[in-house]
């Protein structure tokens, strides 16, 4: 999931950079708006992937969380020994 998030972030930044270059030199408004729309779409996809990854990590953490029945025994410290 991390790799997909990185790829989507890079694509979003590349669309913004391309829109700035196209807007400055070519001055083609529909192309600039298309590139900005692409940046928004890639950004939203990255946040969607991140939220799915967070949900999966939270579910796994809840499943692997020890409770009082299967928790490892506490170790005694040197101070507690007689």
Note the overall shape.
rod-shaped
The biggest beta sheet reads: none
Strand content: under 5%
Count of DSSP strands: 0
Helix content: over 70%
Please state the oligomeric state of the protein chains shown: single chain
* Total helical elements: 2
Mean model confidence by pLDDT: 85
Structural class: mainly alpha
Which consecutive residue ranges, at least 5 long each, have pLDDT under 50? none
Describe the 3D structure.
By secondary structure, the chain is mainly α. 74% of the residues lie in helices and 0% in strands. The protein contains two helices and no strands. Helix 1 (2-26) runs antiparallel to helix 2. The longest helix has 36 residues, at 29-64. The radius of gyration is 24 Å and the shape is rod-shaped.
State the gist of this model.
The chain has two helices and no strands. It is mainly alpha-helical.
Spell out the key features of this protein.
82 residues, mainly alpha, rod-shaped
Question: What are the SSEs and their pairings?
Answer:
Blueprint lengths: L1 H25 L2 H36 L18
Helix pairs in contact: 1-2
